[in-house]
Amino acid sequence: MTILITGAAFITFLVLAKFGFNVSELLGSAQSSVSESANKSVAARDVLAPGAQYGGSDMARINFLSLALALVLGTAGLPHVLMRFYTVPTAKEARRSVTWAIGLIGAFYIFTLVLGFGAAAYVGADVIAKAPGGVNSAAPLLAFSLGGTILMAVISAVAFATILAVVAGLAITASASLAHDIYNGVIKRGQASEESQVRVSRITVVVIGIASIILGIGAMGQNIAFLVALAFAVAASANLPTILFSLFWRKFNTTGAVLSMYGGLISAIVLIIFSPAVSGKSTSMFKSLDFHWFPLENPGLVSIPIGFGLAILGTIFGKPDTELADKAVEMEVRSLTGVGVEKAIDH
After folding, report:
1. Are 298 and 230 in contact (CB under 8 A)?
2. How far apart are CA 179 and CA 181, in angstroms?
3. Paired residues of 279 in beta bridges
4. According to the model, what pLDDT value does residue 265 have?
5. Phi and psi torsions of 285, nearest 5°
6. How far is it, in rounded angstroms, from Cα 304 to Cα 233?
7. What is the pLDDT of residues 58-73, one digit of tens each?
8. pLDDT digits (tens, 9 = 90+) for 313-324
9. CB-based burial of residue 26 (10 Å sphere; 0-12 exposed, 13-18 middle, 19+ buried)?
10. CA distance readout (Å), 243 to 238, 240, 247, 257, 262
11. Which of 96, 145, 207, 318 has its CA 20 to 30 A from that of 44?
């Protein structure tokens, strides 16, 4: 993550330096470059106009709202933020770590805006569209235009290393959770041997790898930013309700947590499968098929409220967790002040 943000910050600095750190000049140059495109549909677009992509109809505006909710709320449910709570010794350091993580993620969002307009200004819409990766080649092509082959190789290596680290981390987390929490905790009731847990973990990694390859082939040619937005919607629907209610609702119980996680996850995935992102449009994963019935490309506007609603219903109608309720006050004091955290860690 560090090398990714550093690389993006470096290219952003180079782009702004080329325009004398004048953002208006950068935006104007990008607009002029797009208007000179040989593609008439591209040249007709005003990339600086509000709603350039999500304007023009009520459904497009609703789709933009769904995308915005997924991006904003999904950030809080990402592993990049959640892991901050488990890698620090005290509550004070946890808050500081989360603040830094969210700040860096926000800065990266700003970097991508500069990189996008910089690619339009320096590389050109036609060159990007004709590149093997299409719009996904904008950043490497921008690096090549700014610093030649060496800079492009460095940025490509940074991107590859970041992707490899994220995939490895997710695979390890998923395999460990399935082997320890589900196989040992649920199926074997805590009686599974270490050897069997390791075996299940290895099998899980292989299955996840095969499934990821198949899904990757199906998503080949899709805009990476668009796919990331779908992942954010899943995170906001499945993780965020449990996180927020666990922190701020003393009556929140296991039933509510389970319903919100499974319900939010399933609803988000189902809506994605039957959305225009998968079929029914020229930009869909399966262009020749049309089995979509959900009108929005991003499910966040529907799946996120479902996750929160199921959490509330599960807590109201589920069995109260009396032991957890008794510890709620103690945990709240620890989370806000850090008192007793060091003692708990020692034990």
Report:
1. yes
2. 6
3. 286
4. 92
5. -65, -40
6. 7
7. 888 888 889 889 988 9
8. 999 988 877 665
9. buried
10. 10, 5, 6, 9, 14
11. 145
Find the radius of gyration of the CA atoms of the chain: 23
- CB neighbour list of residue 12: distance below 8 Å, 6 or more residues apart: 111, 114, 115, 118
Residues 6+ apart with CB under 8 A from 130: none
> CA of 239: how far to CAs of 61, 231, 264, 311, 329, in Å?
26, 12, 8, 11, 23
| Host H or E run for residue 254 | helix 254-273
Q: At 49, list the tokens.
A: 């106009």
At residue 260, the 3 state secondary structure works out as helix
| Max intra-chain CA distance, the chain | 68
Residue carrying structure tokens 């010794």: 89
Closest CA to 123 of 111, 134, 107, 108: 134
CA-closest candidate to residue 27, choices 98, 119, 92: 119
Q: Extract the tokens encoding 146.
A: 């700014």
